[in-house]
Backbone:
């Protein structure tokens, strides 16, 4: 039986990953933020860990994304995790990277104001670098995944897809930016399938993009989403010249040269419309209980 350690197991992605691993007959060990790491090391020091998923990260959205205390806390927690790993038998580490890292790199040397995502991106980049350095110095395999925008059942919050679906269900009007920036979305089941393959296939190492691989203007994604509800009209959604809340235009990041993991593994992807229907059903069920 393969053994895995997962951080962030109570979050949207982490919970789905834990479920996927367990369904595949794997032994899943969850590491929570308030766990005593000394006790954890003593308990699992003799267990051979096939992959340690560093997935949990506070402040990926909302006010905490621009909180220095929050982002420094994330970095310190990653440092503590690496110190823990030295006391364990870990074959491979996976670190959940972010497109925000590349946005920060792309902006830091330009003579303009840094984007709001810069603090989050720079913190992720620093943690990314220390994990990679740690793995290289200690002979541990590593894999880094740059996630596209993840959506699906299990998420009920203020992020773009979830909040928009909630408004459409309530027959509320949506207002978006002009929507010209390039976006990619990945359904939660597809994401955890990639993460499962990373943890169970020793040959998958290095850096990958994890998404649908279909980057296109955000406007087109949103029109597809509204169409699911029969509300793809100006009566329900408005595109206007307000500042974009996200800036994921990968045309600016041509130097990344990262491959989509799905191209390597020939993984199928859930069509966006079907993913929206599944997510809408989940959200409707949640709203019934409110």
Residues:
């Amino acid at each position: 039986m393969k053994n895995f350690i997962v951080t962030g197991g109570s979050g949207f992605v982490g919970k789905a990953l834990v479920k996927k691993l367990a369904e595949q007959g794997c032994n899943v060990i969850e590491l929570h933020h308030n766990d005593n790491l000394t006790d954890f090391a003593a308990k699992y020091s003799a267990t051979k860990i096939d992959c340690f998923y560093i997935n949990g990260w506070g402040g990926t959205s909302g006010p905490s994304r621009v909180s220095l205390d929050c982002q420094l806390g994330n970095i310190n927690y990653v440092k503590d995790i690496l110190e823990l790993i030295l006391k364990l038998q870990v074959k491979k580490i996976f670190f959940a990277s972010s497109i925000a890292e590349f946005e920060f790199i792309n902006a830091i040397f330009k003579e303009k104001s840094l984007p709001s995502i810069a603090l989050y991106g720079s913190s992720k980049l620093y943690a990314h670098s220390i994990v990679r350095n740690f793995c290289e110095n200690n002979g541990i395999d590593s894999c880094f995944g740059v996630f596209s925008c993840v959506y699906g059942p299990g998420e009920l919050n203020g992020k773009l897809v979830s909040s928009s679906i909630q408004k459409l269900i309530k027959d509320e009007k949506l207002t978006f930016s002009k929507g010209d920036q390039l976006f990619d979305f990945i359904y939660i089941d597809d994401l955890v399938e990639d993460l499962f393959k990373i943890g169970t296939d020793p040959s998958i190492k290095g850096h990958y993009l994890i998404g649908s691989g279909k980057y296109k203007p955000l406007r087109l994604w949103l029109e597809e989403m509204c169409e699911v509800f029969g509300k793809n009209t100006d009566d329900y959604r408005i595109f206007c010249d307000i500042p974009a809340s996200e800036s994921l235009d990968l045309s600016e990041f041509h130097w990344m040269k990262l491959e989509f993991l799905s191209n390597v593994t020939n993984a199928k992807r859930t069509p966006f419309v079907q993913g929206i229907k599944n997510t809408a059903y989940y959200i409707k069920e949640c709203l019934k209980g409110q």
Observations:
- The chain has a mean pLDDT of 91.
